[in-house]
């Protein structure tokens, strides 16, 4: 391992067991909450989060080849501790089956709870518990220009490594807020609330919608009764086949593509 000072190599040393365990601990929500930190991996995700300036990067652990190729990109981040490590060291701290050149430790950002709902489509997720689904939905929201997402307390943690990787950097462009959904919907009931459902109006009828709250439910159980009581209209994606339901992320993408 080479500690980099001002992005120049310094004295070589080994990544300590204590430091390794500390980084590994951030795979678990308990320690992410206690430290207010999370990890991100891979060139695309890490560089996008750095470029967003939404998260304060505390440390970068990189392979020598990646550091050499990206040293110019790091010029604007001279306050970040950059450590060049060996592949076997990256494997120890990575959550990926195949570690990919760089791992970063970021501080969580404070969510912006003061959301202006005027002339916006707001995504609301009710207990979407699969990390891959949540990450993909954040990425889909970013694709369609959705800037704010409201999640129930029962949703997967946005800083779960699987969520972070699935967003492919979109985490830095979508404001994600966790709250009591029923209370939040009650406070914002002046905006029309739509719910994705197996039954309801065809989503094609909503083309051109400019202002609305769109609720996506749990992968297995749909939308809870406490949330559904505030819904004004159910919408559905008409089917022609025999599948019982759609993946939550797939359904979100289809609905947003129509509206």
Sequence-ordered SSE layout with sheet pairings:
Blueprint: E1 2-5, E2 8-12, H1 17-25, H2 29-35, E3 37-41, H3 43-52, E4 57-62, H4 64-70, E5 81-84, H5 87-93, E6 102-107, E7 121-125, H6 131-143, E8 148-152, H7 161-167, E9 175-179, H8 181-187, E10 193-202, E11 212-216, H9 225-228, E12 233-236, H10 248-258
Parallel strand pairs: 4-5, 7-8, 7-11, 8-9, 10-11, 10-12
Antiparallel strand pairs: 1-2, 1-5, 3-6, 4-6
Quick gist of this model?
The chain is of the alpha/beta class.
List keywords for this structure.
2 domains; 6-stranded mixed beta sheet; Alpha/beta knot; alpha/beta; 25% strand; 60s Ribosomal Protein L30, Chain: A; 259 residues; 12 strands; elongated; 6-stranded parallel beta sheet
């Amino acid at each position: 391992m080479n500690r980099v000072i001002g992005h120049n190599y310094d004295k070589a040393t080994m990544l300590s067991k204590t430091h390794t365990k500390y980084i590994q601990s951030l795979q678990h929500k308990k320690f992410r909450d206690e430290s207010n930190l999370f990890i991100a991996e891979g060139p695309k995700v890490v560089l996008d989060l750095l470029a967003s300036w939404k998260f304060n990067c505390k440390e970068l652990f990189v392979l020598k080849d990646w550091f050499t190729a990206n040293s110019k990109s790091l010029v604007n981040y001279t306050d970040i501790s950059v450590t060049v490590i060996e592949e076997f060291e990256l494997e120890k701290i990575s959550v990926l089956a195949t570690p990919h050149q760089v791992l970063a430790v970021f501080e969580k950002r404070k969510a912006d709870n003061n959301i202006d709902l005027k002339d916006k489509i707001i995504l609301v997720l009710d207990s979407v518990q699969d990390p891959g689904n949540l990450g993909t939905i954040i990425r889909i929201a970013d694709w369609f220009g959705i800037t704010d997402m409201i999640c129930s307390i029962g949703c997967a943690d946005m800083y779960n490594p699987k969520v972070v990787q699935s967003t492919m950097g979109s985490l830095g462009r979508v404001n994600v807020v966790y709250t009591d959904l029923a209370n939040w919907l009650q406070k914002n009931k002046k905006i029309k609330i739509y719910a994705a459902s197996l039954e309801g109006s065809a989503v094609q009828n909503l083309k051109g919608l400019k202002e609305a709250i769109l609720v996506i439910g749990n992968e297995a159980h749909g939308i809870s009764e406490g949330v559904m009581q505030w819904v004004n209209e159910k919408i559905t994606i008409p089917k022609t086949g025999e599948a019982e339901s759609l993946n939550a992320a797939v359904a979100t993408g289809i609905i947003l593509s129509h509206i």
